[in-house]
Write a structure and sequence with these properties.
single chain; 384 residues; alpha/beta; Rossmann fold; seven-stranded parallel beta sheet; six-stranded parallel beta sheet; 15 strands; globular; disordered C terminus
């Protein structure tokens, strides 16, 4: 095989569990894999992986100037790299991926982790939304080798651009775990501390909860989250641990008593989300409080392992979390179901689809387009 696949992200590679999982699977399948991301001033040294890694340093670390600088640096870095396929992960690296694929006449893949333009931090800012939407409309229809994390998002892209997306869910790897009695009960939120994650109601809810909230992660809502803790005098109850590397985070997750997966309905991306943490809690064998949105409900319906809520207001969150903390029968049932479901819902099953998808992409031939004689378009092979 020995074909080279380059995947591009804007994240810090040390903490991107999803991309580490994807790149490991591709490397183990025999591909030469290079994952390219950003280098922050706070970045830790990279851990050796079965794939190559490259961090691109930038002067700017956030905002419009960061995206402009990073995409420019990424383009020129990729310009001098040999590859058989370029995979742009989300809209914020799609422009370099598209132009490089045209210049080098190589295969291009779009990995749509979410409905990028429908995230709360985008859709609530009209000027920013217009810029990203123009980028989306210009580039996304030009990718026919595409995948995303669930059916509703795949359907939305299909309605917008007429391209069928493969669904490859970001599920945790199945590993042996030992469910032991918790030494200290605490409630865990892991992942991006971003707008639209209900911190405005979750943090005040802990006024009436006799338990600690541990937050592992960072993001664009971190300052506001810390301010909420100060305003409500919750410094002893809400603990910010910042970004945690995957191996340590897995230990903390298994020690937690309850996990948190909450999203506001603002932005279709939130409503159709399928958060990484949803599966991380499942595979750690801990029940979680989760929003009752379509994808979560569909996964939870047959054998409930999460406690789903419609109301994300502080009063209801307090009541529901207190119920999980005190109702041992309910807790034990959800935990038992976690241990059953994780055996059937895991990355070992999903990676088979990833490998088939990439094999089909790399083996697809360019054929003449009927509507544009003399032009060429990528035709994706259909899966049997």
């Amino acid at each position: 095989m020995n074909k080279t696949i380059i995947l591009t992200v804007t994240s810090d590679l040390s903490y991107d569990q999803r991309m580490i999982r994807i790149c490991n699977s591709l490397a183990n399948a025999g591909y030469k894999v290079l994952l390219v991301g950003r280098k922050l001033r706070s970045s830790l040294p990279l851990i050796d992986q079965p794939f190559r890694q490259k961090r691109i340093p930038c002067i700017f670390e956030k905002g419009k100037l960061f995206y402009a600088e990073y995409n420019t640096r990424l383009f020129f870095y990729l310009l001098f790299k040999k590859m058989d396929c370029i995979c742009a992960v989300d809209l914020d690296t799609i422009l370099p991926g598209y132009f490089i694929s045209r210049i080098k006449k190589t295969k291009r893949v779009y990995d749509a982790h979410e409905l990028f333009c429908e995230m709360k931090e985008i859709v609530t800012r009209p000027g920013i939304y217009r810029v990203w939407k123009k980028i989306e409309r210009y580039t996304v229809p030009k990718f026919v080798h595409v995948y995303t994390v669930n059916e509703p998002i795949a359907n939305e892209f299909n309605k917008m651009y007429g391209v069928q997306y493969e669904v490859i869910r970001n599920i945790a790897m199945l590993k042996n775990i030992r469910v032991a009695e918790k030494k200290e009960r605490f409630i865990l939120y892991q992942g991006a501390v971003n707008e639209g994650r209900c911190f405005e109601t979750l943090i005040p809810a802990f006024i009436n909860i006799n338990c600690k909230l541990v937050i592992c992660g960072d993001g664009n809502f971190m300052n506001q989250a810390k301010q909420l803790v100060t305003e409500h005098n919750l410094q002893e109850k809400v603990i910010f641990k910042g970004k945690i590397q995957p191996e340590e985070l897995a230990v903390i997750t298994q020690q937690a008593y309850i996990g948190i997966t909450l999203f506001e309905k603002t932005g279709l991306s939130n409503y159709y989300s399928l958060a990484n943490r949803f599966f991380d809690y499942l595979h750690a064998g801990i029940p979680q409080l989760c929003v009752n949105y379509p994808v979560y409900a569909a996964l939870n319906n047959q054998l409930p392992f999460a406690w789903l809520v419609d109301d994300t207001g502080s009063t209801n969150l307090s009541a529901q979390l207190n119920n999980l903390l005190s109702n041992e029968v309910l807790y034990d049932e959800l935990q038992h179901n976690c241990l059953i479901v994780r055996e059937h819902v895991n990355w070992q099953q999903e990676e088979k689809k990833l490998i088939s998808f990439m094999l089909s992409c790399l083996n697809a031939e360019k054929r003449s387009c009927r509507n544009n004689p003399g032009q060429h378009c990528d035709i994706s092979i259909q899966f049997v």
